[in-house]
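The protein record quoted in full:

***
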Amino acid sequence: MTEPSETPAEETPKTASHDNEPSPKLRAFMNSGWADSERQDVTLSDVGSWAAKRRDALSQAFPGERLVIPAGTYKVRSNDTDFVFRPHTDYVWLTGNQTSDAVLVLEPNGTSGHDSVLYFRPRADRSEGEEFWRDRMYGELWAGRRPSLTETAKEFGLETRHVDRLADALKSDVPTRVRRGEDASIASLLSGTTTDAGRDKELAFALSELRLVKDPFELEQLRDAVAITHRGFSDVLAEMDKVREYGERWIEGTFWRRARAEGNDVGYTSIAAAGPHATTLHWIENDGPVVDGTLMLLDMGVENRNLYTADITRTLPVSGEFTPRQRDLYQLVLDAQNAGIDALRPGVTFRAGHEAAMEVIVRGLDAMELLPVSAEEALDPESKLYQRYTLHGVSHMLGLDVHDCSAARAEKYTKGDLQTGYVLTVEPGLYFQADDLTVPEDLRGIGIRIEDDILITDNGAENLSDAMPRDVEGLQNWMAS
């Protein structure tokens, strides 16, 4: 796990039209007079030992085959500006590393396992070349310090090599599977090896399915993300005067401030939906007013510094108190959510929570005389007319991605059974569109969703976000505090 003896040839620095062309004297001056800044304090990170176990599990699934998992590269926002980099989830899960343009290769070692090597672009040598001071993408003086090969090897317990050596490493015709879609340059390097799309899909399936059960490190990260998210919601409620003045934008910005201060970012674009915007499931424009007498639906989650995200929704009365009609509808959704959570335990189907929640929703809508048919007919699989007002499923997996493990096969996920260690959301909702003539006028434009993050335990389920108020009195007291 040391730096290679040979130094890869330097590429032309990535510069822009308005950058200065350096003189020979400046080049020589820039390559001298720098202190040694190699970090000597690096030790194996907490995630390093867990990532090694995950690589072992993946190795056992594909004996004798090379496995290539890219971190991905920067994505263009506009012209020559990029979005902030976020590595591919499978890469993070297998390494713990967050460096751009990196590639993890599991090379079969001729026995029963694999040798893992992390290829990436380390910080450039300041004693030669121009990358460190002229390259806008990778230069240390432009984009910040990148770790050295040795530092990364120590931190993550992996052999490390310069990414420029990757092409040679992939030349041998070993049966290869690659996690596609994150770095187009990797496909060109594999042109001479045995790959096919079907085999690559099997790698994606396996990675998502391995990630379904969260290990203790992951559960710690999810609890951390939930706790920060709780504080972010409280920040918003503490600034309701500003929310009323500036609208949904203030909600989004206030929550993001907490996400950046204590975490890495938001785990997905925040939904700050007030009034009729709450009936749009993924309202992310967040540019509307917030008006007393209406409800605001806040679907937000912090991604912590190890890139695990919470996903929590609360629907709150802007004025601080629910109207009687709002209260009745909210209580129905809360009762449905409680039924959905209570249905979860190891061995039940993934859909068990959804079915339990929808039973409560439909019976409640029927009691309120809001269904065009009987509850029995509405629940009939050939009918399901109630879905006009509920629209979506109740649960999805949660982890490094907000919709985690999405490549898992249906029989392992949506049509499978729950296992201890799964983490999923339970989030029923009711949505009465502003122009829906099938509901009374006073209900039109009301949207309510309640969402919590649930861990499947040996004996049932634990609500990781239970500290955040959900009941009517708790929400009103939270807003008043």
